[in-house]
Amino acid sequence: MNRRIRYVIKKGGLKLKLIGFTSLLIIFTITILSTFIIQITQSSIEKKAFEVATTSLKQIADFSTHALLERSKENEINLAEMVKDVQNSHIEGLMDVSIYVRKKTANGSIYQYFAGFSKIPQKDFTELNLIQNFSEYSNDKIFIDETSEFYRFIHPVIYNFQGKPIVLGLAVLKYDKETINKVLREVIHLSVYIAIIIIVFTVLLIYFAGMHFTRPILRIADAATDVMNGNLNVKLSIKTNDEIEELATRFNRMVRGLRERDKMEKFVSDSTMCMIQEDSDKHSILGGEYRNMTFFFSDIRGFTAMSIDKKPDEVVTIVNYYLDLQSQIIKRFGGDIDKFVGDEIMASFSGDDGVDHAIECAIAIQTAIADANELRKAENHTICNVGIGINYGEVIVGNIGSHDRMDFTSIGSEVNLAARLCSLAEAGQILIEVQTCILATLPCVFKPAYEINVKGLKRPVSVVAITMEGLCV
Fold first, then answer.
1. Within 13 Å of residue 244, how many CA atoms lie on the same side as its CB?
2. N or C: at which end does the chain have fewer Cβ atoms within 10 angstroms?
3. Which strand ranges, in their side-by-side order, compose the sheet holding 108-116?
4. Does this model's pTM top 0.70?
């Protein structure tokens, strides 16, 4: 049951929560107000009813004095007519008027039924607990009690003789409680109807008003979903002049920042991005550490001569074609492209199998370029070849540069040697330093080792080469 309730609330969204909260608030408010209104209404009706009852009872008691005192036929007729007039007055809630005459007995006094208009035959008034107190009543004193059905008002019929009150009898009036309860029920029903009308009106108002508020929120949610799925070309245009518009504005700023970051990632190596993501504070200062890595350099041959005879946009298109071709292969073999230097690519491979991956990557690049050149030659497109240098060793990896502009890269003699081997490699050739080649476990065909002079090094360097004729992929 709780799961279903949570599901309904989730599907209903903000509108359902607003409707539920507002409905409960309205019901609570109307309940509190109705409680006070009912109490005030009941008190007011009872007060008015008591005023009518007591006024009528006093008139009846005063008129009954002569009839009970003289007990003449004329007075009895007059009393009967008065009682009938009261009956015909149709006072709402008036149930019964009875007049009792007092008779003395050996044991005290009794009150016998004398007149009235009750449909039920009346008996003598025999409530001893009340009779004992009637002698103490004055003309203005009215006794009031109640049952589950009616209020009862009792007024002694008094005759003052020589300054002393003498009780001649009793005038009793009964007032129906249902008259008061009926009004209270009408008040309650009216309160319920008003509550229902207000709740229905409020639900409709919140529903349509909620659509005005939730629609832009849902648009923001859909836009967030698009961004989560990789679509960064999202732009919200929400004009609500409130916090929702501010939220949309900040969302657009966030997406713009993500687009800028996405574009910037194309200019930054994977290792640099990983460094920033892992702990930007730790690496925000200049410095580095020693690591053993395999370095890969690739350079387009004949680039200078080609760039002289062609337009700049043609040169850029050709270079980008070959750089993109190589980049895809480098990523496929787990390499990290450190930077592009003109038509040259600098990449690195980490791990114990970094040398094997670098050689596999180099062979795959030379093979892919050879196949691509066949197609480009058939279509009369300019073709290019690359030379590749590979070397393994210990280097310094870290933030290199100034406090205002730094680059996360690798430096050291092993990096320089890989770059020198690349510059010495012929078109379609892969040059590898001998000690690096010894670490490889690939079944490639290597030419016998030979020594070359490398700029910046005093001693010759022993290298092996893989040419297009010796590729074993």
1. 17
2. N
3. 108-116, 94-105, 164-176, 150-161, 143-146
4. no
Contact call for residues 72 and 80 (beta carbons, < 8 A): no
Read off φ and ψ for residue 299, nearest 5 degrees: -140, 140
Tell me which fold the domain 2-181 belongs to: Beta-Lactamase (3.30.450)
Q: How far is CA 87 from CA 25, 92, 461, in A?
A: 48, 11, 135
pLDDT per residue as tens digits for the range 120-133: 666 777 776 677 66
pLDDT band for position 365 (50/70/90)? very high
Q: Helix (H, G, I), strand (E, B), or coil: what is residue 292?
A: strand
The rounded distance, in Å, linking the Cα atoms of 184 and 346 is 92
pLDDT tens across 200-245, in order? 877 777 777 666 667 777 788 788 888 888 788 888 887 777 777 7
Residue linked to tokens 């109490």? 39
How many other C-beta atoms are found inside a 10 Å radius of the C-beta of residue 435?
A: 12
Dihedral in degrees, nearest 10, Cα atoms 214, 219, 224, 226: 150
Q: For the domain 287-470, what is the CATH superfamily, name and number?
A: Nucleotide cyclase, GGDEF domain (3.30.70.1230)
Return the SS3 of 53: helix
Give the angle 152-160-112 at the CA atoms, nearest 5°. 45
pLDDT digits (tens, 9 = 90+) for 305-318: 777 778 888 888 88
Let me know: does 429 contact 400? Beta carbons within 8 Å. Answer: no
Give yes or no for a contact between 82 and 208, defined as CB atoms under 8 angstroms apart: no
Tell me the pLDDT tens digit for each residue of 410-421: 787 888 888 888
Across the range 333-338, mean pLDDT stands at 90
Segment holding 299, helix H or strand E: strand 287-301
Domain borders along the chain are 2-181, 287-470
CA distances (Å), 170 to each of 75, 85, 133, 461, in order?
A: 16, 19, 12, 139
In the block, residue with structure tokens 């690519």 = 345
- pLDDT (tens digit per residue) in 28-50: 777 787 777 777 877 887 788 78
Residues 6 or more apart in contact with residue 432 via CB below 8 angstroms: 359, 389, 390, 391, 421, 440, 446, 463, 464, 465, 466
The token pair that represents 410 in the structure block: 């690798």
> Is the torsion defined by CA of 257, 263, 264, 269 positive or negative?
positive
User: Residues 258-304: pLDDT tens digits?
Assistant: 877 766 655 555 555 555 555 555 545 555 688 888 999 999 987 77
